[in-house]
Known about the structure:
The structure holds 2 protein chains of 2 kinds. Chain A has a single domain (6-146), classed as Orthogonal Bundle (Globin-like), CATH 1.10.490. Chain A is built from 8 helices and no strands. Chain A has helices spanning 6-16, 21-35, 52-57, 59-77, 82-85, 87-95, 102-119, 125-143. In chain A, helix 1 (6-16) packs across helix 8, helix 2 (21-35) crosses helix 7 (102-119) and helix 7 (102-119) runs antiparallel to helix 8. The two termini of chain A are 21 Å apart. The model of chain A has no long low-confidence stretch (mean pLDDT 96). Chain B is an all-alpha fold. Chain B has a single domain (5-138), classed as Globins (Globin-like), CATH 1.10.490. Chain B has helices at 5-18, 22-36, 54-72, 77-80, 82-92, 97-113, 120-138. At the A-B interface, helix 2, helix 3, helix 7 and helix 8 of A face helix 2, helix 6 and helix 7 of B. Chain A: Belongs to the globin family. Chain A: Involved in oxygen transport from the lung to the various peripheral tissues. Chain A: Residues 3-147 form the Globin domain.
Amino acid sequence: MVHWTAEEKQLISSVWSKVNVEECGAEALARLLIVYPWTQRFFSSFGNLSSPTAIAGNPKVRAHGKKVLTSFGEAIKNLDNIKATYTKLSELHCEKLHVDPENFRLLGDILIIVLAAHFTREFTPACQFAWQKLVSVVAHALARKYH
Amino acid sequence: MVLSASDKTNVKGIFAKIGGQADDYGAETLERMFATYPQTKTYFPHFDMSRGSAQIKAHGKKVAGALIEAVNHIDDIAGALSKLSDLHAQKLRVDPVNFKLLGQCFLVVVAIHNAAALTPEVHASLDKFLCAVGNVLTAKYR
């Protein structure tokens, strides 16, 4: 089980309480697809991903980004049991979606940058540490049921 | 991985915006890297890691200087950083994974101070550039 200090929990929730899940999720997923174009391999059904503009404006990207970040919110509600929270999703990503877990790490890194751009100075080094820990734990939990 | 003409334009553009603050960005990048990825401190056991440390400021300036050198010679980063590459291979031997961590923190610092300028396209180009620099610095490792 992951140990979170009171300070880490506070830094995570105080940032999360101000996050617009739909906007932030859409931004993070769009940037993942733009910065690491090979990640588009999982989204051939999403239509036009031919340029950064197309990706950023793609309604399926927006919707899926919101879905992904909403799921992140579940981890934040259950910081003391993230593993259990993601058991089914982990199985899904392995057995049905066939997503290389490295992609979870890439998305986590992108999310950190999106949060930094949004919160600027409020995203202190301590804050970055807590969120980096969170995205690593989430990535690990999502990879845990792979076989 | 090759830097396209637009990548080079994007990178030069963002560094022009950073301008004289590059040294501060370098120091903040290191500060965040040490805070976010504590294992990176193992390469600096002799450093004063407290906030505003003179050593971190000085080293941040060195790192920023190297990035600027790479930007100024973006058509031949390997040539521009050849001596640094030798140094990292023969003396410093920083594990290659750490260049990614430094790059991530530099992007965070740019995002914090230049959010509007860090469009997805610029973000992609800058990420590629930082990867290219890391690749050059580890190219002679073996």
